Structure formats: C-alpha cells, structure tokens
Amino acid sequence: MEAYLGYFLYLLSLLTVGGIYAIFALGLNVQWGFAGLFNVGIVGFAAVGAYTYALLTTAESTYHVGGFGLPLPVGMLLGMLLSALVAAVIGLICIRLRSDYLAIATIGIAEIIKLILKNEADITNGPRGINKIPRAWEHFSEERFYSSWPLNWFASPESWQAFFDGLPNWWWQPCFAATILLCVYVIYRLLERARVSPWGRMMTAIRENEPAARAAGKNVTARRIEAFVIGAAIMGFAGALFAQHLRLIEPTNTFDATKVTFLVWVMLILGGSGNNRGAILGAFVIWTLWSTSELLIGGGINLIGYVFQSLDTTILTTRAGFLRMMLIGILMQVILQKFPGGILPEVRPASPQVKK
Amino acid sequence: MTQAVLSLNNLKAGYGQTEILHDLSLYVNPNEIVAIIGPNGAGKSTAMKSVLGLLNIAEGTVVLNGEDITDTPAQKVIEKGISYVPQTNNVFVNLSVQENLEMGAWTRPDGIPERLAEMFDLFPDLAEKRNQAAGSLSGGQRQMVAMAKALMVDAKILLLDEPTAGLSPKYRGEIFSTIQKIKSTGVPILIVEQNAKQALGVSDRGYVLVDGANRHTGTGAGLAADPEIARMFLGGGH
Amino acid sequence: MWDAFGFEFVNFYLIPGLVLGCIYALGAIGITLTFGILRFANFAHGEIMMSGAYLTWTIMAIAGYAGLTLHPLVAMVPATVLVILLFLGTDRYFYKPFRKEETIKVVMASFGMMLIIRSAVQVIWGPNQIAFVPGIAKPNAMLRDLTGDLGAMIIMPNKHIFIFLGTIIIVIALSYLLNKTRIGKAMRAVSDSPDLAHVTGINVDNVIRATWIVGGICAMAAGVFLVMDTQILETTMGFRMLLPMFAAAILGGIGKPYGAVAGGLIIGLAEELSAYPWIGDAPLLSPGYKTGVAFAIMVIMLIVRPQGLFKGRSF
C-alpha cells in the first residue's frame, strides 16, 4: 500500500511540474508558434512572475521587502501583469528589428533580471532567495490562512487546525495537481479560441507572408507585440505556479536558463510548434523523460557504487546531469532537422472564405 | 548551319510548385544580340534564371555550345562561361570597383591584371573610379561595373537582366551603345528588356514572351515594325 | 598631472578596461563575421571560446606530465586547430542543413549547440572552476621602472602585454586578409550580397569555411586571453561573454570587423569605468551590475541606431 502511495504521489508530481511546463510551452507557443517571435529569455519572465508572486504573498519577513501577505490570486495576477509589462518594453524596442535581435535582447533581459534579483538584496534577499512561499491548497493549513477570511468564516481556527492535523500530510498534492491541470485546460481553451479568431488568423497570415499582410494594411508590429505580451503574461503566470511548487526560489539555480528556457523550447518543438495540444503533449513527454531518466540514472549510479565500493559516485552523479542535458540538446537538433513539424504538426485554422 | 551558343528547348520551369515558363524555346547564335521582351510577369527574368540553374526545370533542356547544362548549379554554369548580370543588386556595394571586377574573375583567377586593363579600356569612366566603393557610384555607373564584372571571365555569352531599369534616358543610351561595343568584342548577348523599342533597336533578333511561352519571334527590326507588337508593348497605340 | 588619482585610474580602471575590451573585440569579430556572411546570430560562439580555453589548458596539462612547461600562447596553437574543427563540424552537421531555410532555424540550432557544447565541457572537465595558471601575476618590471622614471608609473603584468600585442597582431592580420587576399575580398563580397556572390560564381561554401576558420582563430585567442587574464577556467565564462560580444558587434555595425573591434573596446572600457568613483567616493555603478552595462549600451543602440556606429547592415 505504501509503495502504491509512493507511485501515486510521484505521478502527481509529474503532472504538477509537467503542467507548469505545459503552461510555459503554451505561452511560448503564442510567441513562436503564432507570431514567429524567437524568445530565449523565458527564464526571465518566469523569474518576474515568481518573484512578484513570492514578494506579494509571503508573510512579512525581515529578509526581503514585504512580504505583503496578499491573497494568492492577487499575487499571481500581478506576476502576470509585471511579466507582460517587461515584455511590452522589449517588444516596443526590438520587434520591428529582425528576429535575431529579439533573440539577443530576450536572452539579455533574462540575464539582467537575474542580475537585479541577485544584487538588490534589500528587496529580494539576493542569492539566498525567498522561502516559505505559499502553495495553493497547502497554504490553508498555515495558521495565517485558516485564521483569516475566508476559512475563519466556516469554522474556528482551532477546529481547522484539528481538521488539517487529521489529514495525511500529502492531502494537498492531488488538489494542487488538479488546479494546475485546470489552469492548463483553461489557458488551452482560451488560446484555441484566439487561434481561430480573426486575430489568430491574422497572426498566421503575418507569419506566412509578412509583406502581403503589411500591404493589406495590417499593423504587423502591433499584432506581434500583442502576441509577445500575451505569451509573456502566460509565462509570468507559470512562473508564479513554479514558485508555489518550489516554495523556495533564488536567482541562480531556480532560474537556470538551461532548465527553464531550453527545456520549454525542446518541449514546444517536440510537441509541434503552432499547435496548442502539441505544446501540452511535448511538455508532459519531455518532463516525464527528464524526471524518470534522473531516477533511472541515479539508480544506475547507486548500483555502480554498490558494486565498486571504493568508487566515489558523487562525480558520476553531477556529470550524469550534464550528460542528460547534452542528450536533450542533441534531441532538439534531431527534431529540428528530421521532424520539424513535431509530434502534432500545426493545423491551420479554416480560412474565413471557406466558412460562410 | 551554325551551332547556337545557347539554346533553351521547350522549357517548363518555375519556383517550387508554381510553373511560370510553360513552353519556351529560344537560341542565341555566335555574335548576336538577342532580346527577350514581353509584358510584366511573362517570365522574362525567369527564363534567365532557369539558364543559371536557380530554379526547378520540369521539362526541356538548356544547351550551351552543344553541351546539355540543364539543372547544373549556378557556380558550374558560370565556370562554363555564362556570365549573368542581375537586374538589381548587381554590384558589391562595399567593395571598390576594382575589387568588384576581381570578384567577377573568381572562376578564372589567372591573368587578372591584363583583363582589368581591358575592362578599363572598354569602360573608361570606371578607370578613374577604380578605388571607389561601388555603392558610391550612380546607377548608370553601377550598371557599367556590373557588366565589366561579368566580362572578367572568358564569357561565352552574357546575360543581361533589364540593364536599363530605373536609369535616366541619357544612361539608357549609353548602356545600349556599350552593349553594342561588347558585341563587337565577340561576346554574344541575351538581354531581357522592359524597354522594348530601344532593345529591339540594337538586337539582331528578338523574342516576345507572353504567359511563359514565345508568342512572336523575328529580327529586331522586324519585330519593332510589327504593328501588333507595337500596340502591345511599344506604346504605339496610345 | 600624474597624481595618485591618475595612477589609480590608469592602472586599475583604464588598463583592465582595455584588456577586457581586447577580449570582447576578438570574440565580436567572429560574431560579426558570422552574422554578416552566414546571416545569423551564433549563440554558440561563447561556448566555443570557452571550450578552446579548456582545450588549451588540457594541452598544457598533458605537456606538464611529459615534463614540458608550455606557455598558453604556445599550447593555444594545437588547440586552435581543434577549435576550428569544432566550428567546421558544427557548421557541417548542425547549421548547413538549414542554409536554405529561414535564418531563425539556424539561430535555434546554434542555441541548441550552445547547450550541447557547454554540457559536453561539463561532462568532460566537470562543473567546478579550474585554476588556469596559478600564482599572482607580477607587473612587468621594465615597463614599471621605465614609466616610473617618466613620472607616470604603469604597472602591467606580462599577461596584459601579451593580450595587447596579440590583439594588435590579429587585427592587423585580419585587415590584411580582408583587403588584400582573394578569399578575404570574397568574404566581404558574400557579406555584401550572398545572392550576387552566388551568381558571380564565388564558391560560397569555401568562403563560409574561411569565415569559420577566421572566427575560430579569433574566438580561440579571445578565450585564451580571457583565462590568461582571470586565471580561472569556468564553464559559464562563454555564456558570460556572449552578451557583451553581441553588444560589441551590434555597436560596431553587423558585418563590420573593425566596428566589432571598436565596439569591443568601448564595451570593455564602459564596463570597467562604470565602477570608477566618478561622483563622490562610491563606484558610479555597483560592480555587481558591470555585466548590465553591455546590455544597456546594446539596447540604447538598438533604439537609436540599429545599424551600429559604422553603418553595418541593419535588418
């Protein structure tokens, strides 16, 4: 029974993190799949969303500014907004230039954001990061939440405490995973609607034939900035969820460009850029591969350590992580060259002339 | 019968899936200027690009001095002696005039100084500007650089794509007289022109291209005098 | 007026700024040539620089086992061959398949290469710092005494003199190559217009190969100069250099090697001088933000003059 519970919880964690990555991938799909904008600063938008959420929702702390103890949805919403704002500034500067410049600028802004997070220790606690970030559902079992509205409206803090003490310590995990999957679904539905809307069709037209779209009087730059900002807002949202999942965030390892930006790119390309379902599928596939391969390799190294007792396996463990990264990189190259459409290639929305 | 330097036989060609040339045949004899004229979108420039192997040839052949060069890559075609001057962007703007000519001689790197001297004889205007960046020259002078650059190899035939497009009447005349000068050095020329009247004036023969196929052929003077062609392209009917 | 301030300014800010500038300049030459001739921003450039430094160190270490002490500038020569092969191999297997497609695909491929090369280095050499050349670099005594006698003492370790001289030699050689040789002129021609180069009969593949070789030599020199200066090998150094090098290339104008040199020097100087206490006693900008200077300059450039100082290509 215990073992099955372990598997169940591992599955939930795959769904949780896979779901967060799926939201990142959906955000990237708006930018790249819809509008052809090459953003390699995903990690920057994730960090903006995560830090905004963390500073706004944590309990007051002496280590960093705030925390302001605001309700969770408010933190997430403002995380989205701030991420969108950063994107709007970059978009206004770079989108009229060729795509390479946007790539350079986004990778640059991600570094600058991390630099600020690292250096402004008074605000962000610098490299030590922010901890005790409230996680949806689990946060109800914290005193400051169950003793305030809305929970105190239903029952007294004492009875809530007794209630939460009576639950198994993983009680929140299914709820958190379900919430994230619900978010994935809602964002997916909204994006699907956007994709087949006149706006989405215009995006396709711009990507296919920019001069023609311009000649037809479309404001190409404005549409692109919109897509960039919407994508960044989704990434900021995912960043806030990322902070909830981790509960402790710091600038360097949490927001490692390879683990966020790069994985999300591989996910989208594998799943099929331009296809929202592909983005979601790619995220779950890659995350499952990434996570299970870590377990498998770890197990293998343990075995080696057991067979060759004198061997120091820590070196193997760290290097295996990099080897995994290298293999993911090679996987990306193979997909790019051999399967440019991904698993689920893009399906064009029906053109307006066909539908009467 | 003399052998044609270049001949295109029943060519069907286009970009990707789109077929632009449906049935084109033409030839250029030694020591001849041949003009291709026709309305916009008739496939004039496409005909030239098909010679250079820049697009997909579905059917038909391109023959250079008896050798089938259909679908040969551009670099090989140029090595075989076909020199091509594109309509726009036909000089390296950041390179000096002389460097442009040196680049023209890429496929034939020997004896460059002698040929440079020949070119500066043929185009005296360029001699004094040899060290200036080609981008700093006027449109007409750039066209001269482009032609000189194309002649730096031992050209068996010179292809000119609308050499007078966008030039003032003064330069147009100069370009056409240069073309005749080039012919007198023994290089046959195939020229695509919008400016049909002047082009036919210097040409030995001409082809009228409509919808990717030849509509009329004849001598330059004969075509220029044809009332139907005059009505179609030469503005005679207006 | 060579007072204590002048001494401090020149020796602790100006010279380090120029040293950094030389390193950026050499890196940016490769980036601007690739950008101009192959028309894409090569994100893997910094990582190749970094792997070159690791290779140099390895050759020095192997020679050390054999009882030979090699100077980095000597060990650099065989390492350069390997780095050029790395560039050519990357191009052949990862970039060339996209030559006829949208450039953004190559940019993506280079982004992937960035990760592959860095991970490979981390797998082979491990993620931890390695001391490149141990010990403190002593200032060149002759230069110190000579300038000291003149009343303007310059304390500069030999490594910095090597870096300056090396950069000057490479830039002179590059300008000879680009202006006097056939392949160099062809590189400029392809940078000017690849389509015209193609129909002129220029062997574009050879030109591309030459570009990687030249870029490889410059990247190699930049990588080794960087570790000679910092004396530490780190797997993150390539990525850290990438942004300033892009900034230098954009500042100088894409496709303009001299522009890249000027851009590199300006960025290097700006980064170091931003920490000088121009106003009051505190550094003008916290040294933690040094790397942000390059980015700020680049963004301003993109807003004001995207074609760069020397009128490069603006896309």
Using the alpha-carbon principal axes, give the shape of chain A: globular
Beta-sheet strand percentage of chain A?
A: under 5%
Cα-based radius of gyration of chain A, to the nearest Å: 22 Å
Helix content of chain B: 25-40%
Compute the number of helices of chain B. 10
- Quick check: average pLDDT of chain B? 85
For the sheet with most strands of chain B, the description reads: 6 strands, mixed
Write the layout of secondary structure elements.
The complex is a heterotrimer of chains A (356), B (238) and C (315).
Chain A: H1 2-34, H2 42-57, H3 72-94, H4 99-119, H5 121-124, H6 143-146, H7 151-154, H8 157-166, H9 172-196, H10 198-208, H11 210-215, H12 220-246, H13 258-271, H14 276-307, H15 313-338
Helix pairs in contact in A: 1-9, 1-12, 1-13, 1-14, 2-3, 2-4, 2-12, 3-12, 9-10, 10-12, 13-14, 13-15, 14-15
Chain B: E1 6-15, E2 18-28, E3 33-37, H1 44-51, E4 56-64, E5 67-68, H2 74-79, E6 82-85, H3 97-104, H4 112-122, H5 124-127, H6 139-151, E7 157-161, H7 169-184, E8 189-193, H8 196-202, E9 205-210, E10 213-219, H9 220-225, H10 227-232
Parallel strand pairs in B: 3-8, 3-9, 6-7, 7-8
Antiparallel strand pairs in B: 1-2, 1-4, 4-5, 9-10
Chain C: H1 4-37, H2 45-65, H3 72-95, H4 103-125, E1 130-131, H5 141-149, H6 158-180, H7 182-192, H8 194-200, H9 204-230, E2 232-233, H10 237-252, H11 257-273, H12 290-304
Antiparallel strand pairs in C: 1-2
Helix pairs in contact in C: 1-6, 1-9, 1-10, 1-11, 2-3, 2-4, 2-9, 2-10, 3-9, 6-7, 6-9, 7-8, 7-9, 10-11, 10-12, 11-12
Would you mind describing this structure in some detail?
The complex is a heterotrimer of chains A (356), B (238) and C (315). By secondary structure, chain A is an all-alpha fold. Chain A has one domain. Chain A contains 15 helices and no strands. In chain A, α1 (2-34) packs parallel to α9 (172-196) and α3 packs antiparallel against α12. Chain B is of the alpha/beta class. Helix content of chain B is 36%, strand content 27%. Chain B is built from ten helices and ten strands. In chain B, the strands form two sheets. Chain B has a six-stranded mixed β-sheet, with helices on both faces. Chain B has a four-stranded antiparallel β-sheet with strand order 2-1-4-5, covered by helices on one side. In chain B, a hairpin with a 2-residue loop joins β1 and β2. Chain B is globular. The relative contact order of chain B is 0.18. Chain C has a single domain (2-304), classed as ABC transporter involved in vitamin B12 uptake, BtuC. In chain C, 72% of the residues lie in helices and 1% in strands. Chain C has helices at 4-37, 45-65, 72-95, 103-125, 141-149, 158-180, 182-192, 194-200, 204-230, 237-252, 257-273, 290-304, and strands at 130-131, 232-233. In chain C, strands 1-2 form a two-stranded antiparallel ribbon. The longest helix of chain C has 34 residues, at 4-37. Chains in contact: A-C, B-C. Chains B and C meet through α2 and α3 of B and α7 and α8 of C.
